[in-house]
Design a protein that fits this description.
Layout: E1 11-16, E2 21-25, E3 29-32, E4 48-51, H1 63-66, E5 75-83, E6 88-94, E7 98-104, H2 112-124, E8 133-137, E9 144-148, H3 155-164, H4 171-190, E10 193-194, E11 203-205, E12 211-213, E13 220-221, E14 227-228, H5 242-247, E15 249-250, H6 252-267, H7 279-287, H8 300-309, H9 320-328, H10 335-343
Antiparallel strand pairs: 1-2, 1-4, 2-3, 5-6, 6-7, 7-9, 8-9, 10-13, 11-12, 14-15
C-alpha cells in the first residue's frame, strides 16, 4: 500500500516530488498523498516505466528453501494445461492453498536426469521475469517439477486467441511485454546463461499482461563467450541465429537474434516467422542477407530494433540490457513519441 491507497498491478509511470507521489497509468492519473500540485502534461519526460507486481518467491514453504523435494500427496491436479511428447503440464494446488503449475515426465520417454536438469537451472536463476521453481517430486515416477502458475498460458496462444476474437492489444502493451522479456534475458545475460529457445511459445502470461520466460530445458551456463551444441542437437530453425543454425555456435548474441524474431511474433499476433518459406529456404536466404520485411502496423523504430537484433555480425547486435532500456523508454524518449502512445 502506498500513501492512502493501493498501488495497482498495472503498467505505471512514476515520478516523485516533495509534496506528492504521482502514478501515471497509460490511461489515467492516480494521486496518493496528503496534497497534490498541478498534474504534469503528457509531454513531461520524467517518468520511469515500471511494472508493479508480486515479489519473487523462493519456494512453497520455509522447508523447501533448502529442501526442494515435497510429498506428491500434497498436490492436487485441477486441469490439464497442455501435453507433449515427454509429458503434461497441469494447473494444480499445493496443500489446497497455493496455485501451482505441475510439469510431469511421461515414464520411459526421456532420462529423468535430463528432465530434472531444467529444475537444477531454475534453482540457480531467481528473477521476477523468469518462471520460478517451487519444488520437485523425484522419489518415484512420474517425476514432477512444480513452478509458479501463469494462468493465461503461453504468449503465443494468448496472442493467437486475441487475434481469433478479432481483438488487439494496444501497441504500448505489446512494447511493454517486449521490455519485460528483455529484462528477464538481461538477467540471464548477467549470469552468463543462454536460453537457446527464446520464442513466444516459451514465454508465459499472467494477469495484467505480466509475462515471464519459461522452458529452460535448453539453457546452458557458458564459461566462454560461446557454446558449441552437441552433434545431432535439434533447434527451431526460424528462431535460430545463422551462426547457431549452421555451425552450432550459440551465445547470448544468438539469443538476441531470437528475441528479434519474437518481436515479430508480438506485432503479428503469433504469425509463424518467414511465412511461406521452408526451413531450408530460411537457412539459405538468411545466410545471403535476407531479413523479414517490416510487419504491417509495426512502428518503424521497433523494426529498426529487429534489424539490429538480426545483424550478421553477432558482436554488433545489442545487449539485452540495451534492448531493455530502449523498449522501456520507447514512448518517453521525446514528446512526439509520447503522443503516439496515447493515440492507440
Amino acid at each position: 500500500m502506498l500513501g492512502n491507497g493501493f498501488l495497482p498491478s498495472t503498467i505505471a509511470r512514476i515520478t516523485y516530488t516533495p509534496c506528492h507521489i504521482l502514478i501515471k497509468n497509460l490511461e489515467q492519473y492516480f494521486i496518493f498523498g496528503l496534497r497534490t500540485t498541478n498534474l504534469p502534461s503528457a509531454h513531461d519526460s520524467d517518468y520511469k516505466l515500471c511494472k508493479i507486481e508480486k515479489p519473487v518467491t523462493e519456494g512453497l514453504s520455509h522447508r523447501t528453501r533448502d529442501q526442494w523435494e515435497i510429498d506428491r500427496t500434497s498436490l492436487k491436479f485441477v486441469r490439464k494445461l497442455g501435453s507433449g511428447q515427454f509429458g503434461e503440464v497441469w494447473e494444480g494446488l499445493w496443500n489446497n492453498t497455493t496455485s501451482v503449475a505441475i510439469k510431469t515426465l511421461k515414464s520411459g520417454t526421456m532420462d529423468p536426469k535430463d528432465f530434472l536438469a531444467e529444475a537444477q537451472i531454475m534453482k540457480k536463476l531467481r528473477h521476477n521475469k523468469l518462471i520460478q521453481l517451487y519444488a520437485v517430486c523425484t522419489v518415484e515416477e512420474p517425476i514432477y517439477i512444480i513452478t509458479e502458475l501463469m494462468k493465461h498460458g503461453s504468449l503465443l496462444e494468448y496472442l493467437q486467441a486475441i487475434a481469433g476474437k478479432g481483438r488487439s492489444l494496444k501497441m504500448p502493451v505489446l512494447i511493454d511485454m517486449a521490455a519485460q522479456i528483455a529484462a528477464g534475458m538481461a538477467y540471464l545475460e548477467s549470469q552468463n546463461y543462454i536460453h537457446r529457445d527464446l520464442a513466444a511459445r516459451n514465454v508465459l502470461v499472467g494477469d495484467n499482461n505480466i509475462v515471464k520466460i519459461a522452458d529452460f530445458g535448453l539453457a546452458r551456463l557458458i564459461k566462454e563467450d560461446e557454446y558449441e551444441a552437441r552433434v545431432g542437437a535439434r533447434f527451431p530453425i526460424k528462431w535460430t541465429a545463422p551462426e547457431a543454425a549452421n555451425y552450432s555456435k550459440f551465445s547470448i548474441k544468438s539469443d538476441v537474434w531470437s528475441f528479434g524474431i519474437l518481436l515479430t511474433e508480438l506485432v503479428t499476433y503469433g504469425r509463424i516467422p518467414y511465412p511461406g518459406m521452408t526451413n531450408a529456404e530460411v537457412l539459405t536466404q538468411v545466410e545471403h542477407g535476407y531479413r523479414m520485411p517490416q510487419p504491417p502496423n509495426c512502428d518503424q523504430r521497433l523494426y529498426e530494433i529487429m534489424l539490429e537484433c538480426w545483424h550478421k555480425d553477432p558482436m554488433r547486435r545489442p545487449t539485452f540490457e540495451t534492448l531493455q532500456w530502449k523498449l522501456e523508454d520507447f514512448y518517453t524518449s521525446d514528446q512526439s513519441d509520447y503522443k503516439e502512445a496515447q493515440a492507440y
